[in-house]
Give the backbone structure.
Amino acid sequence: MSETQKTNKDVVQNDKKNINLKKSDLVKHWLLGYSSETAYNYERLQALGTTNAMVPIVRRLYKTKEEQAKELKKYMIFFNTEPSYIGTVIHGIAASMEEQRANGEQIDSDDINSVRTGLMGPMAGIGDTVSQGIVYPILAGICCSLALAGNVLGPILFEVVYKAIMLTMGYSFYMLGYRQGKNSILKLLQSGRLNKVTEIFSIIGLMVVGNMAATRVNVLTPIEFTVGKVRFNLQEVLDSLLPGMIPLATTLLILKLVGKKVNPTYIIALIFVVGILGSLLGILAPIE
Amino acid sequence: MPVFISAVLVALISTLSQWWVSHAITRTWLYPIWVGFLVALAMGEPIIGMQAAAYIQLTYLGWITAGGTMPGNLMAAGVFGTALTLLSGAEPELAPTFAVPFSLLGIFINQAYMTLNSFWVHKADKYLDNNNITGMRIMNYVPSGILSLVLYGIPAFILVYFGGGVAENLLNSLPESLIQALSVVGALMPALGIAILLNYLGNKKLVGFFILGFFMTIYLDLDIMAVTIFSAVIGVLIYVFSIDKEKTEGEA
């Protein structure tokens, strides 16, 4: 049955035109995808930007303005994914499906859109974890340390390395999507390999965050009093018990609030109150 | 640098921090460490401005923006926080406390931006109905840029061009004890960014690695690069062993 279907399709394909996308079309499509949040909006999020990116593809595949506009319209539906690192795989898949469709394969607009909307959630999940949960904080943490030491390489390194990782991953995933189609990404998701890699990066992220908690939460307690002739310095006592106790306790307390889904705005208000009162009452001081 | 030119440049940077023309360029303009540094360059104070930007960055380290919602406006925090720190002549440690009000106000600015941008999408629909592809493309790029100029650019210009004296007087009018108190707030603030990130990255199984990183730093006095390298080695080893284990289990 499937054999006959396949032959039928081949016949249709041979009857129809044979247009292939050029490498330059794919590169343009990938690059224009980075403008998918230029008119970012609540109603359809990346719909307009994604449509704009599709223009080089439909211009290659269809001759008339009418056909091109008709093919573009299907992209004007709600769409939102992680657009820079991994979500590009969806655009690659869309380009390959469009190419097959233009060459007479039985693929309609709904097929393309159901693949796209089906993948946008999972790809956003993985992509945001990689870009916002791993690359950005680790890199920003390292670069902040450099910048605070007065080294101009801090921000420059951030810009260069961030973009290098982003563009390399974005291009690779776009091409993966184009060459392998939707099956590749489903296989990747099912194998569990991706989860494992994410977990490894989480380990790196967590340890770096541990370093930042130890070095960047710079508060101590200046409490001091004398009992008889013995000078009593609370910070020294704390340091001999468990160094870094105040930064660790502060971080874990706030973590508890964040875990309870307390609005960050309230946490900021709390930090202001605690910081100002703590300083005025002589309980807390910044580490110089 | 003349104030007028600084103000125009900062306004431009501020506009592009929200009007993401192409993530290939503006993706990093979201983040205080980079956008604050650009502001610092435009205002002719690269080093102090860079440090102010880094302090602001630490506060917002773990702020994940997904689906267009953000718990605070990172861009406004980076641009306006850095600019105000430089204008007032305050120590860079105070930058996070200056950035916070802008970040909160910025939530509404961002909502206005993303709400109004919906209009251009409808315009683009109409252009496509009339087979006007160029019209659709213009809708993607141009109106949101003008909107961002109004919402982000002009306020930044006003702050830099007119705000200098006001900011300086404001800082000078603050009593020393309050400035000290605000620097305690600034020193506590990174704990929030770190906690949000921790909450995002850490499931219960992995939280031990945070503690490991913390005490490696405290007791061994390792810097962030050293911790990154050690953690990468640990991560790769765990990966390799878990793959091996999978294989042997598969064979058995």
Residues 136 and 162 of chain A are 7 Å apart (CA to CA). Residues 218-286 of chain A form one domain. Chain A is about 70% helix and 5% strand. Residues 109-148 of chain A form the longest helix (40 residues).
